[in-house]
């Protein structure tokens, strides 16, 4: 009957198409659905909360995930990194959700996107979900790599709509502000082609970060950057009320802060157009971020002096979180350069241990120190992406032990026992 009506071959053809689709994507769909259930991270005062428990972060930076997910020959590195992070008990990875006008650009020009690269970001989010890793996604760079605010200004200047060719016009030029808002909207409302979930509805995303290391040195009063943060944070929240939001600050105290003289690494740090306290107090900002680079700030100092300063810097900002901001404090970048004076790998381990111990002590005291992120982790064969901070953690047994021990301490601090989380069980039992 079917063959006689001329429908046999179309039906067979359609069935073959469905089989091909399943062979191509079925395993991915199954793996995604079988991944661990994730809830949205929320904030209660100075703490992050997940499923009624305080949530402390042992995190890391791998900014390169989207870039490597674009090409099939580098894509396996994404899974390898996320799988390794989960194995170490890490919970959040900070990575770029931008690439503006560069190689493998996500945003080719204002409002125009390369779907191939967007699908790569879809892949990163889906892969993170499968491994129980959340993502802190940064929306633009203050610095030149991956386009950054310089590329936005260049686009506007080329189109004849910019008021100035200064990089800082990113923060005040109306056309450029609209470029950025359009990018934010495109990201937050993106429907993941793998999971079918809009980004703004996906709990795999821990939080959004407005901009990596914002500085606006053309306005030392800080008013320009403050206005930009206020406007953009309100805009983000108007689209996405489910996710947390942070700025991406380095943590420097501004010209009106008494701590500029006692805690900042130098007078220059108060003259960058940013202010940790003022910027972070904005009601639409959920938590504050701080970066730690003692080798950049004090290149001539001995290691002991640098480490002493690290403790002072971290404790000061945790006090700010408790007393001034009433918000969680996250140290979203910290690292020690292998180009530092007399560098030895053991020096980096000492630095990590100090950072980890301060976060753990804050957790024990119920203070605002909510987590830390190493800059940066790589997998093998990525030498061209390495800077003088990058490490492959499993290549150093002592470093690996240090990281996993911190994961286990935080798990217990937040009321999650190894027996309750299967991926922590074997890891933490080995630490005893």
UniProtKB/TrEMBL annotation:
Keyword Isomerase attached: no
Classification via InterPro entries: GH (IPR017853), Glyco_hydro_5 (IPR001547), MAN-like (IPR045053)
Compartments in which it is found: Secreted
One biological process term in Gene Ontology: polysaccharide catabolic process
Enzyme Commission numbers on file: 3.2.1.78
Ranges where the Glycoside hydrolase family domain occurs: 39-377
Annotated transmembrane regions: 6-25
Pfam families with a match to the protein in the record: GH5_mannosidase
GO cellular component annotations of the record: extracellular region
UniProtKB keywords: Glycosidase, Hydrolase, Membrane, Secreted, Transmembrane, Transmembrane helix
Catalyzed chemical reaction(s): Random hydrolysis of (1->4)-beta-D-mannosidic linkages in mannans, galactomannans and glucomannans
Annotated GO MF terms: mannan endo-1,4-beta-mannosidase activity
PANTHER family recorded: MANNAN ENDO-1,4-BETA-MANNOSIDASE 2, PTHR31451
Similarity section: Belongs to the glycosyl hydrolase 5 (cellulase A) family.
Protein name per its UniProtKB record: mannan endo-1,4-beta-mannosidase
